[in-house]
Automatic annotation (TrEMBL):
Residue ranges of coiled coil: 10-170
Pfam families hit by this protein: CT398_CC
Annotated protein name in UniProt: CT398-like coiled coil hairpin domain-containing protein
Entries under InterPro entries matching the protein: CT398_CC_hairpin
Stretches assigned to the CT398-like coiled coil hairpin domain: 10-186
Keywords associated with the record: Coiled coil
Top-level taxon of origin: Bacteria
Amino acid sequence: MSRVTPLFELQQVDSNIDRHNINIANIETTLLDKTTLEAARQAVSDVETLLRNTRTKLKDLEFETQTVEKHASDLEKKLYEGLIKGVKEMKAAQSEIDTFRKRRAELEDSSVEAMLEVEEVEKSLEVVRQKLATVENEREKSLIPLTQELTKLKKELGELQLAREKQVRKITPSDLPLYEKLRSQKQGVAVAELLMGKICGKCRVDIPLSKQRDLKSPIVIITCPSCGRILYLP
Ligand SMILES: [Zn+2]
């Protein structure tokens, strides 16, 4: 076995560990992301507030209508019972009654508008509540497979870490620092497989003949002249 073989095998384990870490991070991000859920909840809360305000407005209008009508009726009663004396006073009372009645008619129109508004907002509330239920339901459904996948990946990661420890023991200790240095500098890939006996499997550069020859020796470490990675002859 060449000196590079255990390094290549370690590289495979490490790449697998890297993939697992990326997948785990992605799933955890998805699980933590509640943006859609929170937006749907906020929409319900906003429409609920709007509905409360619209209902209050309607109630106020109804109350004011009753008050104005009572004023008009009281005055009318006084007038018919002869409690208001004098032509001038009676005219003034009648004019006040007319003003109250006019105001009541205006208030009734506003009440009708407010009633329609309440109905509209009630419909909107139904829509946003339905949307929230859908979002919650979909989230619930997607969480189960994601959580299962996460558990599986974490278990596999544990196994890979054990495999890595075992693999590290097969490596010539002085080769490890170079391997680790290249891993950190070369996007996690320190060892490149030689393709067709002459091409760097990572940067695709042709390896000079002299290096190709040296690669056949089981005791030396040859690096790619272009990307600097350790070359592995399968
Ligand atoms: Zn290369």
